[in-house]
Amino acid sequence: MSADLIARGLAVRAQGLAQRTARDRAIAAAAAAPLGGLPSFTLLAEPPVLTLTDASASTIASTVRVTATQPCFRATGTPVQPVASDPSAYGGTDGAGGTNYGRPIQWEWMSDAAQIELLLVKFNALFDLFVDGQLVQAAAFATPATGDRRLVKLDWSATADPRRPRHYRITGTNLLFGGLFLDAAGSAWFAGDHAGRGLIAFFGDSYTQGTGAATVARNWSAAAAAQLRMDAWSDGVGGAGWNSTGATAPAARVAKSLAVLTRAPDRIVTALGYNDAGADAAGLAALRTRYDATVAAIRAAWPDTQLVTLGPWTPLGPTTALGSVRAALQERAAANQVAFVDVEAMVGVGNRSLYTAADNVHPTAAGHLYLGRRIGQALGALA
Asked: pTM for this one?
């Protein structure tokens, strides 16, 4: 290898380290900042007129078509592929080239259109729509699984500044996106790589899936990322634990989700353990083995990414069984040089009536926000 190539390689590495150092400082500063409202959990003060139409043809006069493959879009999730029944739309794969579009995915772009329509294929989708970081509506958008098209139209004509450039983001599951229709004078362009913000990926159970949250994009992981001023991607599977087997075994999930993300994560947070509370001595031994294998799989995919492990949730307070899982995870996290964040008793006897739902397991919407803010601060302290 020539001296010039070596020098260039060292320069690139130094630049990457400098960017990461700056980003870590920004994360720490965000976590230490006074707690205020999270824009991503609030509604737009001046929303557009919103219209939903089940049709293929745009309702905008003299429309401009922007297909989902145009470079103005950025998709964060597993690799996208065309929908077999409607090749104009794209969804996130199962990570192995299959057509399981259930993986969470996020699409973003910029546009100055006064009228803009999002084209979707109905596939039992559940998603949120943000403009300039704020929610367009309080409830999640949902579609049936009928396979035909739906247009989501945002008309800014009656607002004070209809053509102000705006950042758009849609995020959810079963989200089959076919691009945009714009008014004749409108345009769309790439939103930028958000290098200053960074991406934090979460890997967990039904909490991370969003059970009990106000919407799919307002769970604890979204709140934690927003607290750190980072972008979030979350893979949650209800009932999953470190000892899950088959398709929901942690290492198998990593291969189809975290390992193939379309964007390199700056941090990966694992949040499993509550569903392993019934493990006996043999089960705890298996948990340790599976944890080690999962960490190895994540590091093989993203060797430069910081890993963090959360202890098990305590929706009703600490228990002996959950304490055993917590101790096993602390031990293996230390052995693998993974940062450990203890969430024991963040929710417990004193506040469970506020933050734990009637099922005595999952958070309320307020519980998601509370856990996210506390965990976000704890993650920021690790920077």
From this structure: 0.89
